[in-house]
Amino acid sequence: MQFPEITNYYEVIQMIEIIAATLEDVIRIEKFGGDRIELISAFFEGGLTPSYALIEEAVKRVRIPVNVMIRPHSKSFVYSKDEIEIMKKDVLIAKSLNVNGVVFGILNEKSEINEEVLEDMLQVCDGIDVTFHRAIDEVSDQTEAINILSKYPQITNVLTSGGKGNIIDNIDNLKVMIQNSKHINILVGGGLNFNNINEIKDKVKASHYHFGTAVRKDSSFSGEIEGDKLYRMVSTINIR
């Protein structure tokens, strides 16, 4: 099926990031209008660090940016010293493979941002984008968390649904997060779909959006990315 190019009757000012778990996903995301890729493994577990071979091939096969998940397990966002060292090595390897950026989130036992460990991680992230992912939705106060993250110029994006629960119920929180984000791009995601995207777009007025199952067959973790769905979502986001 052929799709027309997005032309000047759209005001294309948005960043649309799509999750990829396979090389085929990577190729389809670029082909059907995605702006950036979040490359992961273990979609069912919320995303873990992908293989180095997949990272290398993904970066080679597309022109759009590839950001790589750095997450050694799905038990929590609290990591031991050994796990942090592994994550730092994963960042260095991802950098050597010419990724655009990395994606991670780090909390302490109190479900607060662990600044000491975050600062340690950021030391190896120079020269690439850093997305602090949905670990932020686990903290009690997302506005306070954004204020903390805004202290770090290396952090370019924060992926969030505005807190726990349904993203529609978090609209006011998302708006406040955007107002307080300073240099950080608030990447709205986690529960976005065709049923709620227009309301979210109109009320939150974000410029960065993140999609996973919404553009997949049967809206399933295991479904492949469907070109018509992705193209429709890109058009929905960009049209004014």
3D architecture notes:
33% of the residues lie in helices and 15% in strands. Residues 1-12 have low confidence and may be disordered. It is globular. Strands 1-2-3-4-5-6-7-8 form an eight-stranded parallel barrel, surrounded by four helices. It is an alpha/beta fold and 240 residues long. It has one domain (15-238): Alpha-Beta Barrel (TIM Barrel).
Mind telling me which CATH architecture this is? Answer: Alpha-Beta Barrel
Beta content: 15-25%
CATH topology: TIM Barrel
Strand order of the largest sheet: 1-2-3-4-5-6-7-8
Low-confidence stretches: 1-12
Structural class: alpha/beta
Q: Order of SSEs, N→C? A: EHEHEHEHEHEHEHEH
CATH superfamily: Copper homeostasis (CutC) domain
How would you sum up the global shape?
Answer: globular
Number of domains: 1
Count of separate DSSP helical elements? 8
Q: Evaluate the radius of gyration.
A: 17 Å
| Major β-sheet annotation | 8 strands, parallel, barrel
> What is the β-strand count?
8
Distance from first to last alpha carbon: 25 Å
CATH class type: Alpha Beta
Instruction: Give the % helix.
Output: 25-40%
Q: What assembly state would you assign to the polypeptide chains in this entry?
A: single chain
Mean pLDDT metric: 94
